[in-house]
Amino acid sequence: MSQSSQGQPSVNALTPGQVEEAVDAAAEKKVATPLPRLLVSAMFAGAFIGFGALFFIVVTSDSSLSFAAGKLLGGLAFCLGLVLVLCCGSELFTGNSLMVSGAMEHRIGWGAMLKNWAIVWVGNLLGAAVAVVLVSAAGILDLNGGAAGTTAIAVAAAKISPDWFTLFFRGILCNIFVCLAVRIGFAARSVADKVLGILLPISAFVACGFEHCVANMFFLPVGLVAKLSGYALPGSGADPSVVNVGGVLYNLSAATLGNIVGGAIFVGLAYWFVQGHHKD
After folding, report:
1. Could you give the CA distance from residue 46 to residue 206 in angstroms, rounded to a whole number?
2. Tell me: the pLDDT tens digits for 221-260?
3. Which residues are paired to 9 by β-bridges?
4. N or C: which end of the chain has fewer CB within 10 A?
5. Ramachandran region of residue 59, left (φ > 0), alpha (ψ -120 to 50) or beta?
6. CA dist 14 → 72, 94, 169 (Å)
7. DSSP-assigned letters across all residues of 159-179
8. Is the Cβ–Cβ distance between 13 and 98 less than 8 Å?
9. Sequence-distant (≥ 6) Cβ neighbours of residue 13 within 8 angstroms
10. Superfamily of 16-275 according to CATH
């Protein structure tokens, strides 16, 4: 438990200004992390987000759920991923968009920040790939009479079918929500604070169908695996034929760039402008 300005223990959340300082201090630690540790930590995050995505698939494979109930329950299930990231500790590409404020404060270099982003993106992809392999080997897609596998295909197809700019703007909106949730995590004093604080923004972005590049590193490959494994194709909705390697890369390019804009500009730079020290 941290201390108040009077030296007494405090359970109050950090103020926005204190959060900004914590974000900048975290950026310094991130760029100083040795590459092997950074890569493995990023793999943890990719797997954690994949677990949340798997939970989403299993929950939403229940066709009896109404539209609203499915969106709400699926969104809450997906929150597992960020809960694990924030509470267990790992490096998430989308959350690291906030490092831009540290660069603006001259506490880290721009090159060091971009290097961190590149390593963490690759690590997240590797971790998500490991999660896909484990899920496939464990037969999880067989749940609900194979409906989980069918749902995985449908989710992947729905994420690849829209035009590139639609996916890009959905990526922007997604990481606005995610980075605000990460800032809530920085403000929290306890695990309970972190968990409760992120539920609404994370479940909201999932329910709205926004695009999170790290989540899609799991959603899209697992959908492709389900398709190649012969699970029944969805009878309606997006065309499952788009679920292929090219479709995966198509979505990830739009989602990644959108996530950078949403997190770095609309949250990171905006809060630096409002709360930063603006050092020359």
Report:
1. 17
2. 999 999 999 887 766 566 888 999 999 999 999 999 999 9
3. 3
4. C
5. alpha
6. 29, 22, 31
7. HHSS-HHHHHHHHHHHHHHHH
8. no
9. 187, 188, 189, 193
10. Glycerol uptake facilitator protein. (1.20.1080.10)
184's tokens: 């809530």
User: What is the torsion angle, in degrees rounded to the nearest 10, for the CA atoms of residue 70, residue 133, residue 52 and residue 11?
Assistant: 170
Helix axes 110-137, 213-228, angle to 10 degrees: 30
The helices-and-strands tally (H runs, E runs) of the chain is 11, 0
What one-letter code names the amino acid at 78? F
**Where exactly are the structural domains of the chain?**
16-275
In degrees and rounded to multiples of 5, residue 17 shows phi and psi of -65, -40
Separation of alpha carbons 259 and 176, rounded Å: 8
pTM above 0.90, yes or no: yes
Cα–Cα distance list, 138 to 34, 135, 196, 219 (Å): 33, 5, 31, 17
216-240 as b/e, with b when 16 or more CB fall inside 10 Å?
A: bbbbbbbbbbbbeeebebbeeebeb
pLDDT, one tens digit per residue, over 18-52 is 999 999 999 999 999 999 999 999 999 999 999 99
Is residue 217 helix, strand or coil?
Answer: helix
